[in-house]
Amino acid sequence: MALPRPHRIDLFIAATGLFGGLILWSFGLYVTGDHVFGQRWATLIPLTVMAGTEAVRRTAPQAAVIVGTLAIVADQFTNGNLATVLMFTDVVYAAVVYGTPGQARRVPYITGLITVATTVGFLVWWQNAIALLVGVLTGMISFLPAVTGAIVRNHREAAEAARLRAEQTALLAEMDRTQAVVAERSRMARELHDMVANHLSAIAIHSTAALSLDEPATTQQALTVIRENSVAGLAEMRRLIGLLRDSSGDAEPAAAPTLAGLDALVNQSAVNAEPSGLVLVLDDTRKNPAGLPAPVELAAYRIVQESLTNALKHAAPGEVRVTLGQDPGALWVRVTSPYGERPGPTAPGSGAGLVGMRERVALLDGVFEAGPVTDGEGRKRWRVRAELPVGANDEERT
Q1: Domain that holds residue 374
Q2: Residue ranges with strand state E in the chain
Q3: pLDDT, tens digit, 9 for 90 and up, residues 92-140
Q4: pTM of this prediction?
């Protein structure tokens, strides 16, 4: 496996160090004299090797520090070159900054031990203060660069961690904003569908009847129902617009519907459903109708409203029964309607009503069921059933 190409900055540092060392060598400026290899050319070997380690200080820091250590030791047996020593300090620094995390932890400890061992060894050998000076110089060219590299690396890692945290925070904020927008759009879609679909379905069915039957009385009755539902639908649309306006608008939003208005809802739906042969019955079995959280009452009202709308559009002639009941900790709503083919005009459905009811119940951590069932007399009926917990805090449910 080929090594990565050296970084251009590392090549520049290596070339600069080699050039500076050659200038010092040409003028005969050595660190010491009278060593084992006193020839002038011997100093160039550690210098050249050290310049090579500088070229790979970033791409191969572990190999660079090992070879550099051998080169600096070899330099002690020659007259020595200051450029070789300076390049070694940079190689040690780079080994900590660019090396692996394990290497970055080991190098400061190793250089510290080498510094202490060198100081103690020369003290035992020479038994004078010069040994302390040698120890200080050893620490300056090995331990001090390693500690500096560790500090720089720690700062870089801390800055990178802070940057990642900032990106994660921004990402979470964007996700929260997106979820809030989606939730608000879903709420608006449910409100718009539940408020207007009932009236538009009645208008569609009665207009179809008026167009298909050439009877003045039937036409007059259909137009009357169409007008009533048009006016009611317009009022509901105005209410929705009022909900969407901010507090600086000139229209105050109307109060949300409650279960106290179910009688009026069922009566209005009964008028709309009469031409389809549907009879609507409200059966409220609750012993204590008051004291329900507002979100629960709104959800129950909308579920009944949407169920009656679906019955108006799809149910066969017969009885549509709305039943309310309350158990400890829960309000349940059940709407049953005849299931099967129906004569006369129908209104198309998109399935959005069932989705909206299911979403309303899910927001309250309730249970929702919708589908065909068989009653005790063997008749097939369509049943919508919702169980809504009543122990939730209002603010958590809005």
Answers
A1: 257-398
A2: 278-284, 318-327, 330-338, 367-374, 380-389
A3: 999 999 999 999 999 999 999 999 999 999 899 888 888 899 899 999 9
A4: 0.54
